[in-house]
């Protein structure tokens, strides 16, 4: 079932809040500029304290959108604009009304927990086909004008930000910033895989028809019959194939146990499913 727009934006907002909390309570108080527009904003805020991180990131994101429209012919989804500018607004609100202080002054703890919270928030946002950072635009410009791969371009942008933080905060803090960037990329991918993980199921059973009706009518999922021949019996048989969420598979397994305890089932882990009933392939 497709999610409502309201739910999508609610999920994105939750992800934005997590990223903002990691910035204001772990990164910024410890001068960890972990890449992105907010990393630049943390550096600028340290040099010019009167420029708040929220305001600076809002201005930078706005400027980068304009640059993209001029040089790249950028086409941004509404959700990406909402996420990037919304993050700046929430950061500003936290600074303005909550007066945040560091939860920990231990740089390693701040890096680890700040990265975990930020990665979870960013994974939520990315999973809704949105993005929080204008530095993607800088990476795209490097790709166009210097023919660098997007991945390498992003590394170059983050490296430059980390290098700038080394001049402002010192090499030790900059290395923690680099560690955060590396961990962030690894964790975000793993979290997104966890969000989208499903079970790929093959079933051989004398009750395949009843099982297929349960999948379609009760679980509201599709399934497919595949014609097969048993190598040992040399008899034709139907193999039932379906892709389900973890919760749906648990329900299906209980149903199969009731209708055919002798059924043969194989289950595989699928990290992403696109198409009918799952994520829209046009958005990926």
Describe the model.
It is found in: Cell membrane. The protein has 284 residues and is an alpha+beta fold. It folds into two domains: 5-195, no CATH class; 197-283, Alpha-Beta Plaits, CATH 3.30.70. The chain is 63% helix and 10% strand. The protein has ten helices and four strands, in the order ααααααααβαββαβ. A four-stranded antiparallel beta sheet has the order 2-3-1-4. A hairpin with a 6-residue loop joins β2 (224-229) and β3 (236-244). The two termini are 17 Å apart.
Keywords, please?
4 strands; 4-stranded antiparallel beta sheet; alpha+beta; single chain; 2 domains; 284 residues; Alpha-Beta Plaits; elongated
Q: What's a concise summary of this model?
A:
The chain crosses the membrane at residues 9-28, 40-69, 76-95, 107-126, 173-192. The protein has 284 residues and is of the alpha+beta class.
SSE pattern: HHHHHHHHEHEEHE
Number of domains: 2
Q: pLDDT below 50 for ≥5 consecutive residues: which ranges?
A: none
From the alpha carbons, calculate the radius of gyration and give it in angstroms. 24 Å
Number-wise, the strands total: 4
Cα separation of the termini: 17 Å
Strand order of the largest sheet: 2-3-1-4
For the report, how would you describe the main beta sheet? Answer: 4 strands, antiparallel
Overall morphology: elongated
Q: What oligomerization state is this entry in?
A: single chain
SS strand fraction: 5-15%
SS content category:
alpha+beta
Helical proportion?
55-70%
* Overall mean pLDDT: 88
Work out the helix count: 10
